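TL;DR need structure tokens for one chain.
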Amino acid sequence: TQHLLQTYLAVNNAHCSNTIKEIKSLGKGEFGEVALYKDRKGLNHAVKKIKNQKQVTKAAKKEIHILQILNRNDPSNKYNIIRMRGHYLNGTHQCIIFEPLAYNLYELIKKTNHKGVSLYLTCKFGIQLLNALQFLKTQGIIHTDIKPENIMVCHPRRAKIKLIDFGSSCFI
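>> reply
TL;DR here they are.
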């Protein structure tokens, strides 16, 4: 938790002093937008800026709470859940800081011209997704929005995925 706190303070301080720079937009949706940022130490962070709407802000606060529980109960990062590095308010917009990931499974399928991936890779991804779901069950959490867009490949050259977007999640 000390590392998370230090990362949060570093990113928050960098943000507040305008020394964090946006590198590129990673996507927009009904919730808001996600962009890749680089801090003054050269570290990359994915920052999800939530729209300033009551229901969306409420979902963001719930997502933060759930991710705090999941990340705290997975200190060795072995259950394939996105790592939240911190959160802050940017004016009236809630922002959540995440580890940067490569791309989602829908984008991966588009890159293969919708031909899919090998059975071996499908099995590796399936096992990791089941690992994440089993962990969620032990924590009493239901994701409620599992789809290819919410499963991210960690690195283009590695067969590792993470489950993301806990904004509509709930407790059992």
